[in-house]
Amino acid sequence: QQQVKQSPQSLIVQKGGISIINCAYENTAFDYFPWYQQFPGKGPALLIAIRPDVSEKKEGRFTISFNKSAKQFSLHIMDSQPGDSATYFCAALNYGGSQGNLIFGKGTKLSVKP
Amino acid sequence: NAGVTQTPKFRILKIGQSMTLQCTQDMNHNYMYWYRQDPGMGLKLIYYSVGAGITDKGEVPNGYNVSRSTTEDFPLRLELAAPSQTSVYFCASSLLRGFFTFGSGTRLTVV
């Protein structure tokens, strides 16, 4: 119940295309869903995050879509660029819980071809 | 503002050796975490701390120990290194829950 399932494991997209990464969770106590971006040799960095009181959040070319009833959320990267090539992790958190630690998906390696 | 600093960046250990991975943050964050990252497996929580003097186990604590004597420092100790501990280790800190700042990682190989 603490898992966050992420798919696909890898993704190849042409420059200018749309990249879509999906995540699903089971624990209904989760109430904060961030996405992290990691470049090779670097630590993950917060990209965008959403709370379940909204169905969509957009920041530039990055959009999170959230479906509370299905317990699913996804990251859409519009007009994908070679510089977006990185590993993306979805995560979930029980914001009101005692630990404050994120539960991460296994990651999606995105390659954007020029 | 250095953020989260991890040392060393790389290390090769022999089976049975011990070492300490250092983590320091200068943002006065209360929450600190240690994760390990293995290929295709995401990030697994090893230990975490909600403040100086308070630590607790995460999902994969066996073979590791931590201490939190100050707000800034959260070292991770490996005793009797095993090949299964070959991984990339990330330290993170947060002021608000979920807003993690990660270090650049320590790549550890146990041979």
Q: Output the radius of gyration of chain A.
A: 14 Å
Order of helices and strands of chain B: EEEEEEEEEEE
- Name the quaternary structure: heterodimer
Global shape of chain A:
globular
Q: Please identify the structural class of chain B as seen in this structure.
A: mainly beta
Mean pLDDT of chain B: 94
What class, by secondary structure content of chain A?
A: mainly beta
Interface with most residues: A-B, 25 and 25 residues
The span between the termini of chain A is 39 Å
Model description:
- The complex is a heterodimer of chains A (about 110) and B (about 110).
- Chain A is mainly β and about 110 residues long.
- Chain A contains no helices and 11 strands.
- In chain A, strands 2, 4, 5, 9, 10 and 11 form a 6-stranded mixed β-sheet that branches.
- Chain A is globular and about 45 Å long.
- The N and C termini of chain A lie far apart (about 40 Å).
- The relative contact order of chain A is 0.34.
- The model of chain A has no long low-confidence stretch (mean pLDDT about 90).
- Chain B contains no helices and 11 strands.
- The model of chain B has no long low-confidence stretch (mean pLDDT about 95).
- Chain B is about 0% helix and about 50% strand.
- In chain B, the strands form 2 sheets. In chain B, strands 2, 4, 5, 6, 9, 10 and 11 form a 7-stranded mixed β-sheet that branches.
- The interface of A and B includes residues 43, 44, 91 and 99 of A.
Keywords:
heterodimer; A: 114 residues; mainly beta; 6-stranded mixed beta sheet; 11 strands; B: 111 residues; 7-stranded mixed beta sheet; 4-stranded antiparallel beta sheet; 0% helix; globular
Question: What is shown here, in short?
Answer:
The complex is a heterodimer of chains A (114) and B (111). Chain A is an all-beta fold.
